[in-house]
From TrEMBL:
It comes from Paramuricea clavata. One of its GO terms (molecular function) is water channel activity. InterPro entries: Aquaporin-like, Aquaporin_transptr, MIP. The keyword Ion transport does not apply. This is Aquaporin -like. Its main location: membrane.
């Protein structure tokens, strides 16, 4: 066992070595573009369909936004192979699936992508149709604590789904993984849209809020007071979901033993813990 652990140490001895690879930077660019396009899809559809009333309970608006965002996730995740969500990135970094340096950089580009996507929505939407830019808003009859836990629980469910879809032991690969992610988003939107406009993604909430403020459309102070729930709720729910799945539900996977030239069954959690020594 010691010999195997020693072989894995170089990855941790040079944490900045990944910066010199093309794959690293292509994944960073993909996270930026994917998050930007995703926020553009979400905000453009929700802004026009709601006509500046994200608090209402129109089934048509709810369904339009749910399908657009969910299908957008499934499409863009399949292409980028990214997370496109700072809350998920925090969870993946905390459980060792991303290095700390890459995790921090991914979060930064995801936030910038969210702002860029919202700016694109503003630029391509005719003035008479510009309303809230698809901003996430807490329902006027919801308390702050209620809104916080709606975001927390929905992101927890989303995170468990994404972890399961990306668990190599479950062999959910290719479009199956991206579809699982997308379907989970559709479900979360249908449930939470009428309560919190369903953020479940800090980049999706922060982008339109910033562009709305900078463009002159304005964001009421009362809405800024609740904006923190779209960070704390999703990040907290995603962290808990990641830890729950990592320690309780990670499936055994098969890896190739170069010494024996055979595939051996390995517990994914144990292999990750060895890698992170």
């Amino acid at each position: 066992m010691k010999a195997q652990k020693t072989k894995m140490l170089p990855q941790q001895d040079k944490p900045l070595s990944e910066f010199r690879t093309k794959k690293f930077w292509s994944s960073i660019i993909a996270e930026y573009l994917g998050t930007g396009f995703l926020v553009y899809v979400a905000t453009s559809v929700c802004d026009v369909s709601d006509s500046n009333q994200p608090r209402n309970n129109k089934a048509s608006s709810n369904l339009e936004c749910s399908l657009a965002y969910g299908l957008g996730v499934a499409t863009l995740v399949h292409w980028t192979e990214g997370l496109l969500n700072p809350a998920l990135t925090v969870a993946f970094t905390s459980t060792g699936k991303l290095s700390l340096t890459k995790g921090v950089l991914v979060i930064i580009v995801e936030i910038l992508g969210g702002i860029s996507g919202s700016a694109l929505t503003y630029a391509l939407t005719p003035s008479p149709l510009r309303h809230s830019l698809g901003d996430t808003v807490l329902h006027e009859d919801m308390s702050t604590i209620q809104g916080l836990f709606v975001e927390f629980i929905l992101t927890l469910i989303l995170t468990l789904t994404v972890y399961a879809a990306r668990d190599p032991g479950r062999k959910c690969e290719g479009y199956h993984a991206s579809l699982a992610y997308g379907f989970a988003v559709v479900m979360c939107y249908i449930v939470g849209y009428k309560y919190t406009s369903c953020g479940i993604n800090p980049a999706r909430s922060f982008g339109p809020a910033v562009v709305r403020e900078m463009s002159g459309l304005g964001k009421p102070k009362s809405e800024w007071q609740h904006h923190w729930i779209y960070w704390i709720g999703p990040i907290g729910g995603s962290l808990l979901g990641g830890l729950i799945y990592h320690f309780l539900y990670s499936q055994p996977s098969f890896e190739y033993d170069t010494y024996k030239a055979t595939y051996t069954r390995t517990d994914y959690r144990e292999r990750e813990s060895e890698t992170n020594l």
